[in-house]
Amino acid sequence: MSTSKKQTAPSPETQAEAMQIARATQKPGQTKEQTKLIAQGIQKGIEQYKKQQKAKARERDKLRKKQSKERLPAQPEQDASQHDTDSPTVIQKQHWLPWLLLVASWCGFAAYLLQA
Question: What is the pTM of this model?
Fold first, then answer.
């Protein structure tokens, strides 16, 4: 097994883009060889940028897969409860005032009956 990196030829699009950028930044009196060298440097930069973006995309995919795997065990429990009821469960916090008024009215009714 060798540890050397495989050298691949750059894509024609990358080469064309690098040459276009090199020509756009070309200075008066600059030779074709110098422009070619500049284009090669730009091309290497583009390739390096693409490699970095691919690495970032792989990391994002790994993180997304890890998060989806963490959610999977919790999902069957939710699915089982959702199959029992078709409508979503709405949990509302009840206010204490109606209960207080109900208790007060029953106490008042009991006091009225005891007086009579």
Answer: 0.49
